[in-house]
Design goal:
By secondary structure, the protein is α/β, with parallel strands linked by helices. The chain has 2 domains: 124 residues, Aspartate Aminotransferase, domain 1, CATH 3.90.1150; 237 residues, Type I PLP-dependent aspartate aminotransferase-like (Major domain) (Aspartate Aminotransferase, domain 2), CATH 3.40.640. Helix content is 41%, strand content 15%. It has 13 helices and 14 strands. The structure holds pyridoxal-5'-phosphate.
Length: 388
């Protein structure tokens, strides 16, 4: 098997600090291979070649419900859960079912780029709210809600990545989560909690999820195996109020589609039920923490004092604020000439100019040596640009 083949968007031989993918060596390829091999001997293997349940693989739903009950004491049962083809599928499905063209929604500024693309495709009025080191600015959100209410444009939902946010790595503080749950009840909007990095944490505890704080009311929470197994499996899950899950499960696409990716869902179900997933996640946390530490040390060594960056407690990303007189466009040009690629801050804002001095660095994909040398190159370029 060619482990060198590069994933989507990665130029061979470059240092792709933009890539929010798991590194090749962190993918559980041999375990998946063994699980697939053992599937052939199961008497009902042919079932996997057919359409599946609309709600998704039952074994996986039962496993996830039990895990959520056990690890977070969440009152989640089968009716609150469905399997989806990755978290992004969930974002698309939610915006399709909960909004129509022209409807207003709230997002963080910055926010996950691909969700912004989905909202743009759906022709939504996307209202950004600024964030700081503790997450979204609640006072600003409240002011915006009042303004929107006064012109009869209340938001349908607030989309948020609460833990180790993409792109900043920031975790939303507990008090702010509670305040937002209160606002959602007062102003009648839903909360879409895209919690894809929850299991990649380098700390013991996380603030309770929106789903936990609200008792499951008016919250849709998304999870994925993309970050803790492999994105190519395209399996994630959604939890929410039973009537919303029922509505999604009986929607046109799922009625026809026979559930999300039944074949790979069966592999993931076996991975989880055999106890292997928990062990793999524990191992991954250490691996990603090593990478995060390496990236932070490299930044400390390479960057001028005028550059600022976040210190994420989990996830894949670090967010850099460039010196005032250095733009991300000029840094990008210089870096490209040296074969280093990063994600420009501009892609993560509704108004791209808000990200003109920001860079997202991913520590999930490149080997440690490349992480160090890529960051050293960026540090040198930033110093040169700053000193012009
Ligand atoms: C916030 C967020 N949501 C969703 C995804 C994609 O998840 P999936 O592969 O499950 O669609 C990512 C991956 O980059 C992400 O950062």
């Amino acid at each position: 098997m060619d482990l060198q083949s590069t994933p989507q968007g990665v130029v061979a031989g470059s240092i792709p600090l933009f890539a929010g993918h798991p590194a090749h060596e962190l993918l559980p390829i041999s375990t998946v291979r063994r699980l697939v091999d053992s599937m052939w001997s199961q008497p009902d293997v042919v079932r996997l070649f057919n359409y599946g349940d609309e709600q998704g693989n039952r074994q996986l739903i039962e496993y996830l419900a039990a895990r959520l009950q056990r690890s977070e004491n969440l009152p989640v049962c089968r009716e609150n859960l469905m399997i989806i083809g990755g978290s992004t599928w969930g974002v698309e499905m939610i915006s399709h079912h909960l909004t129509g063209p022209g409807d207003t929604i709230l997002v963080d500024a910055p926010s996950y780029r691909d969700a912004l693309h989905i909202f743009r495709d759906a022709k939504l009025d996307v209202q950004p709210i600024s964030i700081d080191a503790g997450g979204v600015n609640v006072a600003e959100m409240e002011r915006r809600l009042r303004d929107l209410a006064s012109v009869q444009r209340p938001p349908k939902f607030y989309y948020v990545v609460p833990n180790f946010q993409n792109p900043t790595g920031i975790t939303l503080k507990r008090e702010r989560r509670q305040a937002i749950v209160d606002l959602s009840k007062e102003y009648g909007f839903d909360i879409v909690e895209d919690d894809v990095y929850r299991d990649i944490r380098f700390v013991d505890d996380l603030p309770p999820s929106f789903y936990a704080l609200s008792g499951g009311e008016k919250v849709l929470r998304l999870g994925t195996f993309s970050k803790t197994l492999a994105p190519g499996l395209r399996i994630g899950w959604l939890i929410g109020p039973a009537e919303t899950v029922k509505r999604f499960v009986s929607s046109g696409m799922l009625r026809m589609g026979g559930g999300a990716n039944p074949f790979t869902a069966a592999i993931v179900a076996d991975f989880c039920s055999s106890g292997r997933w928990e062990g793999h996640v524990a191992w991954l946390r250490n691996q990603y923490k090593l990478r995060r530490d390496c990236a932070l040390a490299a930044l400390e060594a390479a960057m001028p004092s005028s550059t600022r960056w976040t210190r994420p407690e989990g996830g894949y990303f670090i967010w850099l604020r460039l010196p005032e007189n250095v733009t991300v466009d000029e840094l990008e040009r210089g870096a490209k000439a040296e074969n280093v690629y990063f994600a420009s801050g501009k892609g993560f804002f509704v108004d791209p100019e808000d990200g003109a001095h920001h860079v997202r660095l991913s520590f999930s994909y490149v080997p440690l040596e490349d992480l160090q040398s890529g960051i050293a190159i960026l540090g040198r370029l930033i110093k040169q640009l700053e000193g012009r």
